[in-house]
Write a sequence for this structure.
């Protein structure tokens, strides 16, 4: 049975977030709120947890997973970033954008795209998940919580728990999330002198990045 951890949206209780960190370290998958929609998250280095996350989401190894990072400095440890790419990252973090970049050796090969060796990365603008990342002291592997056959992401903690109570370690409840997933932007073409590619339009406003 998944735990329901109800935290204050502006001042999340550290005691409850530590319970979430304990669950992550035990290899469990969690549902957490973000500034776009709820996400499924797990420990980056736990293969069993990553496989379980993919099964819940109904995706294979070709689906881009995302690293949730605490800040831009941490993001840069896991992606190869040139000056042009960095300027866009700086404009879009924190915020509801996922950036596809070439992964560094810090990213396990099994979680990067098998052909392209790329990974999605983002810094969410959400107090609860940022505090969780700080306590966890490492990025979390994540994917938008859209279940197989669903068309929209989930955003209600109790409903998520009722549907996935035997598949998750915990659900963090900090109030409802937006229903829109992130805007996904592939920055890898910039490494060859081309323009960024918008893979998915979501909550993030492209005008903020100068790409509208």
């Amino acid at each position: 049975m998944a735990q329901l951890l109800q935290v204050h949206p502006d001042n999340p209780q550290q005691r409850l977030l530590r319970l979430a960190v304990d669950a992550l370290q035990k290899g469990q998958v969690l549902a957490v709120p973000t500034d776009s929609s709820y996400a499924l998250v797990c420990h980056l280095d736990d293969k069993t947890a990553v496989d379980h996350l993919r099964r819940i989401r109904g995706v294979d190894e070709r689906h881009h997973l995302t690293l949730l990072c605490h800040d831009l400095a941490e993001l840069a440890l896991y992606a190869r970033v040139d000056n042009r790419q960095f300027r866009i990252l700086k404009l879009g973090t924190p915020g509801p954008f996922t950036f596809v970049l070439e992964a560094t050796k810090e990213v396990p090969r099994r979680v990067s795209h098998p052909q392209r060796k790329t990974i999605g990365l983002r810094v969410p603008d959400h107090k609860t998940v940022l505090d969780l990342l700080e306590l966890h002291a490492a990025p979390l592997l994540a994917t938008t919580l859209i279940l197989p056959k669903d068309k929209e992401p989930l955003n209600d903690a109790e409903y998520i728990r009722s549907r996935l109570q035997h598949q998750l370690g915990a659900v963090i409840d900090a109030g409802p999330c937006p229903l829109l997933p992130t805007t996904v932007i592939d920055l890898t073409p910039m490494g060859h002198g081309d323009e960024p590619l918008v893979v998915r339009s979501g909550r993030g406003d492209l005008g903020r990045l100068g790409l509208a």
Summary: The chain has a mean pLDDT of 92. The first strand starts at residue 3 and ends at 6.
